[in-house]
Amino acid sequence: MGVTGTSGWTHVNFVVNESAHRIYAMKSPLNADAKFPDNLKTSSAKRAFAARLDMTIKRAKITSGRLARLLAVSDGDVTLWRAGIMAPGAEHCHKLSDILGVDITWLCAGTS
User: Fold this and answer.
1) Which of 19, 80, 83, 107 has an alpha carbon within 20 to 30 A of 92's alpha carbon?
2) Which of 96, 66, 62, 59 is nearest to 81 (CA)?
3) Residue 7 contacts residue 29 (beta carbons within 8 Å)
4) Could you tell me if residue 89 is inside a domain?
5) What CA–CA distances, in Å, run from 25 to 13, 44, 76, 98, 110?
6) Distance between CA atoms of residues 6 and 36, nearest Å
């Protein structure tokens, strides 16, 4: 998209409208201070991430299979993330936040 002054880059969030089968883009500022999956190493952090991810997927009314296809990962990976067994890498955290239309810091670190 482009640079928003000197404060940082702007990225696009995608909102999936399953009934219309369309993806809508929305601009939002990129939070460069986000803590990525380094904080998702403990089992309690993985479970907390899984709860946020599961809630967000349900609110977006998107299936795990569709999300997996949009992320170019297996259905099993998304299932393991939702169960809190495994955590996604930084690249997938970025893509998840874009696809689901949520703040990456909240999704991956639990803060806003």
Assistant:
1) 19
2) 96
3) yes
4) yes
5) 6, 33, 27, 9, 24
6) 23
Q: Which two tokens stand for residue 33?
A: 């201070």
Full residue range of the structural domain in which residue 45 is found: 33-109
- Supply the angle between the helices 43-60 and 75-83 in degrees, to the nearest 10: 120
How high is the mean pLDDT of the chain?
A: 75
- Round to whole Å and give the CA distance between 19 and 106: 27
Report the predicted TM-score, pTM, of the whole model to 2 decimal places. 0.65
Name the token pair of 89.
């890498």
pLDDT over 50 (residue 72)? yes
Tokens (6 digits) for 19: 């009934």
End-to-end CA distance of the chain: 23
pLDDT of 71? 95
Residue 100 domain-assigned (yes or no)? yes
